[in-house]
Every structure is written in structure tokens, then in C-alpha cells.
User: Fold this.
Amino acid sequence: MAKKDINNMSFLDHLEDLRWHLIRATLAILIVATVAFIFSKEIFKHIIFAPLDMSFPTYSFLCKCANLINVETSFCGETLPMMIQNRTMGGQFSADIWTSIYTGLVVAFPYVVYQFWSFLKPGLHPNEQKHSRGFIIVTSLLFFIGVLFGYYIVTPLSINFLANYNISDVVDNQIDISSYIALVRSSALASGLIFELPIIIYFLTKIGLVTPEFLKRSRKFALVIVLILSAVITPPDIASQIIVAIPILVLYQVSIYISKIVIKNQKKQQA
Assistant:
């Protein structure tokens, strides 16, 4: 394939180029989603519904920790006091379709990032391209770490807390399948996107919107925002919010370091 000459490309040419990158990214998601739909029963059994089993690794680990310090906890129970049910005719089919699509989005994420990067790369200077090597790997790695964090930490903590929360013995937890899947999906995807913070700071620094000094001055405000975010994606108990807030604060500190590197490289280029 011939190398694109962006200097001779019109605005419509750029739009056409972007359109094909979006088409290829969408096709990748649909292909993976189709495969996920074929194996949907295994995905629901071993991934989506796995946090409902008290043998889930997170519950087992927290139960052992509670036993070590001799504290009673709901993580050591035999079953969760809740039942998943479907209330609509097309509920299960809709859940199957959308779960397959989101699975396609997660699995095909590196290729989607690659298409996004392929569109932007020709517009960068050679030095910028050189310093941006590994962008796809780092972006995908952060996203997958965030998804795993959301799935193994945020999701089971939320499910366990909400399933055991009780206002009266009269009320039984009969959870609609769409509500349950929405919790699993939002916990995993929100964590995956939050873990992209260093990448976001990198680009904001490149275009001059943020600086390391600004990030340091805003650390107190960032702490408040982090606590709000952790409160949104976790159940309303202090322990869960702290567990989620710690890695986000670490990512914020890493972002400050990345911003310093970007500014340093820009000064070298200007010199």
C-alpha cells in the first residue's frame, strides 16, 4: 500500500480515510461479536455469571483475609441472597446480543486503537512518531488491566454488597437479567476507560492543555474527583471506595510523570 501524503490530501480525502478506518474497526468488532454469540453460553457461564458463585476468586481471597483477622463477613457465605430472572419476552435474546457486542468491543480493542493510531500517525512529525512507539501496546495493556480490575474487584464487591443489602425480610432480591448485566458491563468498561488516564494526560500535554505543574496544583481537586468516581462505580461503602481509589491515584501520579517527560521532549525539540 502506498504511503499516504497528507500534505496533498483535501478535507474530503481525510474524511474518506477516517471512514475506512472506522469501517475496519467496526468490522473487527462485529467479527469478534459473532464468534462471541456462537459461544455465548460459555461466556455467560464462565464470565458473566461467575461472580454469582461464592467460589469466585475474589470472594475466596476476602473470606480468607477476614478469617485471618477473625472478622465476620458476607464473603464467606454459601450463596448470594439473590436470583436472576427475565421479565420480558426478548430479554434473554437482547442480553445475548448486547453481551456479544460488548465482548467484541473489549477483545477487538487493540485493533480499534490501531485503526485510530493509523489515522493520526501520518500527521505526526518523525520525532513524535519515534517517541510514540508502543502506543497501541500501552493503551491496550492499560485498558485490559482496567477491565480485569473492574471485573475481579469492582464487580464482585458491588454484587456482594447490593445482594446482601436488606431493608426488610419482606423483600426478596429478584434481579432482572438486564440490570445484572448492566452492572457487570459498566464496572468493567468504566474501569478500563479510567485506566486510560495516563494516555489522556499524554495527549492533553502534547497539545498544551495541561502541564505537570497544573497537575500538581490540582492534586487536591483530583483526589475529590477520584473519590466521586470510585463512589459512582462501587457500592456505597468506604472499603470498596478506597480499594478503587488507590489505583486511580497511582495512575494520576504516573500521569504527572508522563506529562514531565512530554514537556522535556518538547523542550529538546525546540532547542
Q: What stands out?
A: The chain is about 70% helix and 0% strand. The longest strand covers residues 83-85. The beta strands are 83-85, 174-176.
